[in-house]
Automatic annotation (TrEMBL):
GO terms for biological process: response to toxic substance. GO terms for cellular component: membrane. This is Small secreted protein. Residues 1-19 form the signal peptide. InterPro entries: Entericidin. The keyword Nucleotide-binding does not apply. The lineage of its organism: Bacteria, Pseudomonadati, Pseudomonadota, Betaproteobacteria, Burkholderiales. Keywords: Cell membrane, Lipoprotein, Membrane, Palmitate, Signal. It comes from Collimonas arenae. It comes from the Bacteria. Belongs to the EcnA/EcnB lipoprotein family.
Length: 49
């Protein structure tokens, strides 16, 4: 039962993300921007070491 609920919640999350950026291409750009932010943060940590 819990597993089914988690799947439903995950599906709503995916649908919400897709509707927020309207297209798959838009979602790809959002993911790319997120990846760039993670990369920038990792470089900042490296500089501090």
């Amino acid at each position: 039962m819990l597993k089914k609920m988690l799947v439903v919640v995950a599906m709503f999350g995916v649908f919400g993300a897709l509707s927020a950026c309207n297209t798959v291409a838009g979602m790809g750009k959002d993911v790319q921007t997120g990846g760039e932010k993670v990369q920038d943060a990792a470089q900042d940590v490296q500089k501090k070491m």
